[in-house]
Structure formats: C-alpha cells, structure tokens
User: Fold this.
Amino acid sequence: MTGIAELEVENESIAIISIVGAWSIYEKHSHAEEFIETILAKPSIQSVELKFVDLKSWDSVLINFLICILNSCEAKNLTVNVDNIPVGIRRLIELSKTSPVRSTSPAGQKKSTILEFIGRVGLLIFFSLRTFLGFTGKLWVGIISFIGGKVKIRGREFALVLQEVGAKALPIVFLISFLVGLIIAFVSVLQLSQFGANIYVADLVGISMMREMGCIMTGIIMSGRTGAAFAATIGTMIVNDEVDALQTAGFSTINFLVLPRVIALTLMMPLLCIFSSFIGIFGGLCAAISATDLTIVRYCAQTAKAVCLNDFFVGIIKSCFFGFLVAAIGCQKGLQCKRSAEDVGLTTTTAVVTSITAIIIMDAIFAVIFSLIGI
Assistant:
C-alpha cells in the first residue's frame, strides 16, 4: 500500500490530515503542496490536526512531507496539533529544526577583506613551515644516528631506491637538459649574431647550465618524478594501514621509510646535476655549430675558458640542497596523507607544487649569498 494523505475539514475551522500506508522513497506517495494550497485557500481554517491511521512504514519522505506542512502552517500562524505524531518521527522533526541551515548563495556568504586573506595565507605559510621544520629536525636526528651507526638501513632496499632515483631518471634528465641547452643556444645566437659575437654562445650556455639551469631543471624533474612517487607511495601505505602496522611493530617511520629515500636522492642529485649540465652544453654545441660558423674545437675551448671550478661547485652545492628538499617534502606530504584514495592524489599534487616552489626560493637565496661572497 502506497503512502496516502487524506484531508478533511471539521466545523469549517479544523483541517484534519490523515496519513495512511507505507511512505517510501521507492513508492508513490502524496505531496504536501496540494494540501498546503487547499488549506491556505480556506481562510476559515484556524488549526490543523495530524492523524496517523494504519501507518505501515516510513522513511525520509514522510519526514519531508510533515516538515513542509508544519513550516507552511507556522508561516500562516495556523495552530498544528502534533500530539498524535509518533515519538520517533517527532524527534526527527525537532532535530531538523535545531540543525543550522548553511547558506550556499553568494549573498549569504561573508566576503573576506584583503587583510583577512593575507592573514589566512600568512598563517598557512607559518604553520606549514613550522610543521616542515619539526619534520626536518626529526630527520636530521635520524641522519646523525645513521652516521653514528645507531640506525641501520637495509642495503637491498637502499640499492633499489638508488636505482629508482638515479639510473632510471637518466633518460628524462637527458631529454630535458638537451632541449634546454639547445633552446638557450638558439636564443643566444639570435641576439649575439647581430654583434658578430657568436663565440660567446658557449659562455652563456656553459655558465647557465653549470650554475643554474642544470641543478634547477634536475630539481624540477625530480620533483615531478621522484618527489611525487615518494608522496604517493607513503600515502598509499597510510591508506592501506601499512604505516600503522610498522609503528605497532616498533619501527620508526622516519628511519624506516624516510631516511633511505632522503639519503638516496641527496646522493644522486649531484651526479644527475653534473650529467644534466654536460648534456645541456652538448645541446648548445649542436645548436651553435648548426646555426653559426663555430667549430666543435672552438666551442669546447671557449666553454673550458668561460666555465671555472666555482661555477661547477655552485651547481653541486645547490643540487645537494635541492635533492634533500625534494625527498623531505615528498615524504612529509606522504605522511600527512589521510585515509582515502582522493587524498593520495591531493597529497601528490601538493608535494610537487611545494617542492618546485621551495627549489625556486632556495635558488634565489643561494643567488644572493653567492653574490655577496663574490662567487
């Protein structure tokens, strides 16, 4: 039997609504709008009475029907007799009245000022930096313990991580670095050829790749490749309760999961940076000899003359810090992942964006420091 509501008017002032049958979202049922229109169309009606006759079953459909009736009667100052409503239904109706209604319209939302926005962003940066510094402190404690022999890393796992962040990253580093060197050389040729100074293309490509582009491009590549992989791997372990199992078994999350990855990427980044720098110089060589009258011997000689050991070591120092940042941020964001598949994707995206931003900021800091000390 479907849910039916019947309306009767007693003494022309009392409207009686009888509710009968099974009220379910999957069955046909009466709608409150037709009863509200009928009641409001008769000004003589002063009160409404609800009766429940042979009510079989009900769900949210009946609750919604009654709430519409009650709200409409309350808006028109009509008295409603709720004594006959079953206790369970009455509690749900009262609960709906006490629940706050959230406005989703733009007019109902409070507009934030510029100062409030700046304050929120500042607080977000402050708490994020504080969390990362706390994580970095724990990580350095683990590194010092590893150097002192108090913490051991499984050799097989460490070798696999080294292979993943090192040898397997060579193809993408080769491609990006070669193209970057090629682009720098072509842009330099377009400008320097106007002054007959094509020989200085080697200077621009060599110095930019050794000091800046080699380590920056390698850091960005590893952020999108390795940092994201670290965050996704650890985040998935949290979703699968593997991290909880390790902690229950007495393993340190920092020493077991984070330390091998951070050490491996910090060691591999200088080697990848050197590889990237030489491949970028090779790409500049290919562009220069194809677009100008320079020979391979002249280009290599000019590069060796322009690039000094300071440029080489600047790139190495930067790459070590960039490798540490990428690995630490990726692992930290992975450990902050919540227990859902959606959060794994969000964590991975956040790790990549944060790593790239940190690399650019750190490179700017290094540029100021090296400029002040004259390197």
Notes: The longest strand covers residues 47-58. Residues 103-108 have pLDDT under 50 and may be disordered.
